């Protein structure tokens, strides 16, 4: 049985766009984070007027033109597959604006939403400006692309990163959580994980659990699934032979990523 925290692809045609995934506040139980993944055939368009949310439009694969008012970002996007492992282009748009996404080539576009706390300029986040980071050692190594980290003030509440975890490795590990609004020790951030696998028939395991185990779900997650993390630790383990990619959207009352490691497993970080 699929966990209430796991969403299989929807693949619903809506106008010219295929809605591949849709995790919106109305039905996800989340208060801050929304996520939509759309597929566009060449020349197809998707339009949306943002109400109270800001949005980061990530050109996951393919090339797209993003328009907001007089801002036109033509032919952005850098890769045919996320597993080319190069950073991609994104556009940040504040609440109340109308966005149009038109595909130049067949494209998959991630729309990452969170509350728009104050108006901010529409901005291209160019692939060349996306910081790449190696984290961890041994089987805890992974690569992170910081699309919209908390050090970048372009957004009012939204945080977006993408993570590559190689065959046999673990990421979001040692397990950490960010579910207490208790800065400077910990921030409260909800999170969604959009997963892809190479090759596609692979799977990863993701566990979402709290200290008291009132929440404790371990999921076999497949290509195209979304995992919702309302609270708790949320490590990912990748079986031998497969490479994992995931796109994280995070948001909460304060735009700071301050996590707390599970004390039972924090020793992992202290190895020579
Ligand atoms: O470092 C990682 O393995 C990625 C995670 O930090 C992931 O982005 C996350 O869990 C954020 O809270």
TrEMBL record:
Its EC number is 5.3.1.30. It catalyses: 5-deoxy-D-glucuronate = 5-dehydro-2-deoxy-D-gluconate. The keyword Isomerase applies. The keyword Isomerase applies. Keywords: Isomerase. GO terms for molecular function: 5-deoxy-D-glucuronate isomerase activity; glucuronate isomerase activity. NCBIfam families: myo_inos_iolB (TIGR04378). PANTHER family: 5-DEOXY-GLUCURONATE ISOMERASE. Involved in the isomerization of 5-deoxy-glucuronate (5DG) to 5-dehydro-2-deoxy-D-gluconate (DKG or 2-deoxy-5-keto-D-gluconate). Belongs to the isomerase IolB family. This is 5-deoxy-glucuronate isomerase. It comes from Saccharibacillus brassicae.
């Amino acid at each position: 049985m699929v966990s209430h925290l796991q969403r299989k692809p929807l693949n619903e045609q809506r106008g010219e766009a295929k809605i591949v995934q849709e995790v919106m506040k109305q039905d996800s139980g989340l208060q801050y984070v929304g996520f939509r993944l759309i597929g566009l055939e060449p020349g197809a368009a998707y339009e949306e007027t943002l109400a109270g949310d800001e949005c980061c439009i990530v050109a996951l694969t393919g090339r797209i033109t993003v328009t907001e008012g007089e801002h036109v970002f033509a032919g952005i996007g850098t890769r045919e597959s996320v597993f080319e492992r190069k950073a991609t282009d994104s556009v940040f748009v504040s609440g109340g604006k109308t966005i149009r996404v038109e595909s130049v080539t067949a494209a998959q576009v991630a729309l990452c939403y969170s509350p728009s706390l104050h108006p901010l300029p529409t901005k291209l986040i160019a692939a060349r400006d996306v910081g790449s980071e190696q984290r961890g050692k041994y089987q805890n190594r992974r690569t992170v692309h910081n699309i919209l980290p908390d050090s970048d003030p372009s957004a009012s509440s939204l945080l977006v990163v993408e993570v590559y975890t190689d065959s046999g490795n673990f990421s979001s590990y040692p397990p950490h959580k960010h579910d207490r609004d208790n800065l400077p020790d910990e921030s409260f951030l909800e999170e969604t994980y959009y997963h892809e696998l190479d090759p596609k028939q692979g799977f990863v395991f993701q566990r979402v659990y709290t200290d008291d185990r009132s929440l404790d779900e371990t999921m076999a997650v497949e290509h195209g699934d979304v995992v919702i993390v309302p609270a708790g630790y949320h490590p990912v383990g990748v079986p031998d032979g497969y490479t994992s990619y995931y796109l994280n959207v995070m948001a909460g009352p304060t735009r700071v990523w301050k996590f707390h490691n599970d004390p039972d497993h924090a020793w992992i970080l202290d190895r020579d």
